Amino acid sequence: MSAGFEEICDRVAVNLKAVNQEISEACDAAERDRSAVKLVAVTKYAEWDWVRALSREHAVFGENRPQQLAERAVLDELSQPAEWHLIGQLQRNKARSAVQHASLIHSVDSLRLLQRLSSVAGDLNVEQRLLLQVNVTGEESKSGFSPDGLRQGIDEILQVPSVHLDGLMTMAPAGATDEETYACFSGLRDLRDEIRESSAAKEVGHSFSELSMGMSGDFPTAIRAGATIVRIGRRLYDGL
Q1: Residues 6+ apart with CB under 8 A from 139
Q2: Percentage of residues in the chain with pLDDT exceeding 90?
Q3: Which of 181, 208, 178, 214 lies closest to 192, judged by CA?
Q4: For the chain, which terminal residue's Cβ has fewer other Cβ atoms within 10 angstroms, N or C?
């Protein structure tokens, strides 16, 4: 391998160690076990060599674009078997590709998309793991179920076949204060707990154990609010 690639590996290793240290510190501050929080390394803007370098020490990646996910997930060039998540917006006409390549889809933002994924998963004879995206703060620029809309539609959602609802996902408003960010994330946590404890959810066996929230700029706050998955990209590639 070229010296350039080895330099990339060294830089990525330093960045990954720093991010993992901050995750551990945030878990300690929240009195949570480090093993309760999964790091998804976002690869949206990452060059392939950066992903290859990261794969020496990390194996869970998140891609925003279904087409790029499909292209990268099949490449046999990483240092270890990888788990690929789709974290970006998904259109219904890309549902088949997403089901074929994503271990977990974070961005199910409507009942129509959920039903399409269910149909594809049924055709492929798989049970697709999903997260429901919630627009906690009601921003017009963000997609997702509203909290009240999710409450009202949850009985129908829970009956959709060939999928497993692992939990919920959200994004905090851009430029929000730490207090506003925490309110957003804790609101998702409370909504998840409400759904998980409902008799309807218990009857159908969906776990609703996951909370995907927190990115490079706000993941410590997300962990304090109960995040089980944090999606970090930019911090892993500093200096490249």
Answers
A1: 173
A2: 91
A3: 208
A4: N
Burial 1-20 (b: 16+ CB within 10 A, else e): eeeeeeebbebbeebbeebb
What does the alpha-carbon distance between residue 142 and residue 33 come to, in Å, rounded to a whole number? Answer: 31
**Domain annotation covers residue 239:** no
Q: Are the C-beta atoms of residues 131 and 107 closer than 8 Å to each other?
A: yes
Note down the domain range covering 16.
Answer: 3-234
Domain of residue 173, CATH code: 3.20.20.10
Q: What is the pLDDT of residues 225-239, one digit of tens each?
A: 999 999 999 999 999
Q: CA quadruple 217, 218, 223, 226: dihedral positive or negative? A: negative
C-alpha–C-alpha distance, residues 45 and 63, integer Å: 9
The pLDDT value given to residue 161: 96
The overall pTM is greater than 0.85: yes
> Is there a domain that residue 38 lies in?
yes
Q: What is the pLDDT of residues 163-206, one digit of tens each?
A: 999 999 999 998 899 999 999 999 999 999 999 988 788 788 88
Burial class (CB in 10 A: 0-12, 13-18, 19+), 139: middle
Q: Is residue 10 a part of any domain in this protein?
A: yes
Distance between first and last Cα of the chain = 18
Count CA within 13 A, CB hemisphere, residue 176: 18
Distance in angstroms (rounded) separating the CA atoms of residues 89 and 220: 24
In a domain, 240, yes or no: no
